[in-house]
Amino acid sequence: MSEEYYSKKLSANKLKKCYDIASPRIRQYLEAEIQYTLKFIHSNSIALELGCGYGRVLKRIASKAKLAYGIDNSKESLQFARKYLENYSNIKLFEMNVKELSFEKNYFDCVIVIQNGISAFKVDPHLLIKESIRVTKIGGKIILSSYSEKIWKERLEWFIEQAKVGVLGEIDLEKSHDGIIIGKDGFKATTFLKEDFEKIILELNLSATIEEIDDSSIFCVISVK
User: Fold this and answer.
1) CA end-to-end distance (rounded Å), the chain
2) CA distance linking residue 118 with residue 220, whole number of Å
3) For the whole model, what pTM was predicted?
4) SS3 label, residue 166
5) C-alpha to C-alpha distances, 115 to 29, 153, 163, 205, 215, nearest whole angstrom
6) Rounded distance between C-alpha atoms, residue 161 and residue 171, angstroms
7) Fewer Cβ neighbours under 10 Å: the N or C end of the chain?
8) Which are the contacts of 161, defined by CB distance < 8 A and separation ≥ 6?
9) C-alpha angle with apex 112: 109 to 117, nearest 5 degrees?
10) E-strand stretches of 155-206
């Protein structure tokens, strides 16, 4: 899947519908991710979410942070987000590519890349992490997450439902396995495993904790030094 899939085919209302139709187990997974992330947000935090979409997570971040920045490469999603988040004066939205963030060095207390963004963005994860580190303060955190293998069945069922309501193309069930979901229209959703996080942390010589939560997410939290 090209990095344009979410900006061109799966944005704004279509993206919101993906979450609106989620099963109770998927909703639990999504809420568990947010609750884990909010542990790192404080009343004086300046936080940045990469790939904020229509603002589903950013709204929750803004309810706790001093300032909440969100970037996305989809004009349509950002237009939707401006309406969806209009009651939040502490939110700032920008159209931007994660490969080249237009922010100064050492600005954010926390950079958030959850719900499998490290895979979904379709950019070199080394570059994504390096750019996130560049804009994060010393002592700040970078929060990344991907799917646990334990939620594969429910995740696949969720994507099948998305296809049924027309927000995704038909899922190729014969080719979808081992954490990878393939659509017949070119869609491809991969997963960043625990060992993938361990490998990249070692390669970049970073300090991080990696843990599984809710039998649904693998979180990697990098401490910027």
Assistant:
1) 34
2) 11
3) 0.93
4) coil
5) 10, 16, 19, 24, 14
6) 10
7) C
8) 21, 23
9) 160
10) 181-182, 188-189
| Contact in structure between 93 and 62 (CB atoms under 8 Å) | no
Secondary structure letter of residue 150 according to DSSP: G
Collapsing DSSP to helix, strand or coil, 171 comes out as strand
Percent composition of the chain: helix, strand, coil (DSSP 3-state, to 5): 40, 25, 35
The owner of tokens 């994860």 is 125
Continuous segment of H or E residues that includes residue 142: strand 136-147
Which structure tokens are listed for 180?
């990878």
Strands 46-50, 67-72: pairing is: parallel
What's the Cα-to-Cα distance from 45 to each of 53, 108, 140, rounded to whole Å? Answer: 21, 8, 10
- Say if domain 5-149+191-223 classifies as CATH 3.40.50.300: no
| Residue whose entry in the numeric block shows the structure tokens 């004066």 | 89
Show me where the domains of the chain are located: 5-149+191-223
The owner of tokens 């991907």 is: 146
Rounded-to-integer distance, Cα 157 and Cα 122, Å? 23
Distance between CA atoms of 109 and 195, rounded to whole angstroms?
26
